[in-house]
């Protein structure tokens, strides 16, 4: 709905990170807008570079585009990086200066697996910065019950909080929402429980706190387990999964594998993922599905399998990769 409100025609552009969650490129195309990509820096933990953003905006404007919005995903999908408060401050300064609406995809905010960069919301940083940013940044913040420790994708509960958005615009977005009559009951209940969890003294507080803490601790162990496994393999490197639910390793495929992929009319990472699926039953998503730097290949895999299953996943993946590399020397 927010992209629909932002985009008027193909002149309107939206900045989207590469690699990106494909919902954005698909929706921007659906509403007739233009995708303005900005690449994250894999060598710096998938960091965001303000100079890269400025160049992307300048390039789009030189092509006659009007950049109206910018998406950032924190923690990242598929890259798993977490932005620091300083990163967010730079981002907010950039958005206010360039008069760009900031779309903060913060749906993985509960999924943090390190202590150096805890989740900080864009709205909090904006208020901490004071004026003129606290009143001039047009901010759309997104959250959902589909992620976090609830992980209830099927209940379809989520929200957008609009900060410093013109009241007339909000009214129009409400009209668009009203086309669907009303949100589903279970989704509303799920959102309510996420935003209002049990408090100390409540009957279910101890159980909720214990289950949530144990799940996050387990996810942190799984993130380390998967990252370490990828980094132990020939031709594969992976930044640590700081947050979200995925690992996104880079694969350096041997020439023989690239030739085999070309013969089948497939990208190198697609070929690898299909071979992995056929040999092990492990389903991954090739990096080409998210966008990636030219000449590189990646795959995205989740860290969600239960801890007792993850060791089996790691063993199967390692065995496959060793055999794949030997077969394609």
From TrEMBL:
Name by which UniProt lists this protein: Alanine aminotransferase-like protein
Keyword Iron-sulfur included in the entry's annotation: no
Similarity comment text for this entry: Belongs to the class-I pyridoxal-phosphate-dependent aminotransferase family. Alanine aminotransferase subfamily.
Keyword Electron transport: no
Residues of the signal peptide: none
Domain Aminotransferase class I/classII large: 4-309
InterPro entries: ALAT1/2-like (IPR045088), Aminotransferase_I/II_large (IPR004839), PyrdxlP-dep_Trfase (IPR015424), PyrdxlP-dep_Trfase_major (IPR015421), PyrdxlP-dep_Trfase_small (IPR015422)
Pfam family, one: Aminotran_1_2
Pathway in which this enzyme or protein is active: Photosynthesis; C4 acid pathway
């Amino acid at each position: 709905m927010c992209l629909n409100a932002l985009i008027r025609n193909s002149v309107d552009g939206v900045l989207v990170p590469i690699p990106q969650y494909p919902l954005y490129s698909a929706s921007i195309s659906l509403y007739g807008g233009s995708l303005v990509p900005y690449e994250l820096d894999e060598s710096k933990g998938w960091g965001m570079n303000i100079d890269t953003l400025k160049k992307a905006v300048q390039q789009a404007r030189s092509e006659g585009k009007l950049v109206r919005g910018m998406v950032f995903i924190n923690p990242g999908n598929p890259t798993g990086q977490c932005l620091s408060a300083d990163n967010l401050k730079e981002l907010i300064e950039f958005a206010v200066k360039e008069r760009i609406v900031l779309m903060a995809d913060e749906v993985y905010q509960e999924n943090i697996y390190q202590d150096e960069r805890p989740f900080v919301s864009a709205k909090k940083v904006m208020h901490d910065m004071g004026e003129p940013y606290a009143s001039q940044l047009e901010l759309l913040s997104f959250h959902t019950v589909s992620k976090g420790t609830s992980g209830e994708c099927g209940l379809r509960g989520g929200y957008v909080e609009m900060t410093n958005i013109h009241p007339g615009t909000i009214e129009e977005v409400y009209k668009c929402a009203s086309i669907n009559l009303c949100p589903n009951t279970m989704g509303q209940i799920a959102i309510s429980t996420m935003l209002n969890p049990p408090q100390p003294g409540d009957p279910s507080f101890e159980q909720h706190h214990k289950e949530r803490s144990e799940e996050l601790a387990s996810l942190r162990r799984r993130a380390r387990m998967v990252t370490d496994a990828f980094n132990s393999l020939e031709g594969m490197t992976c930044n640590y999964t700081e947050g979200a639910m995925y690992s996104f390793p880079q694969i350096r495929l041997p020439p023989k594998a690239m030739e085999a992929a070309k013969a089948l009319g497939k990208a190198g990472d697609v070929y690898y993922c299909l071979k992995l699926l056929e040999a092990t039953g492990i389903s991954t998503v090739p990096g080409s599905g998210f966008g990636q730097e030219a000449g590189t290949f990646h795959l995205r895999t989740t860290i969600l399998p239960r801890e007792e299953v993850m060791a089996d996943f790691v063993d199967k993946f390692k065995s496959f990769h060793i055999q794949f590399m030997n077969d394609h020397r």
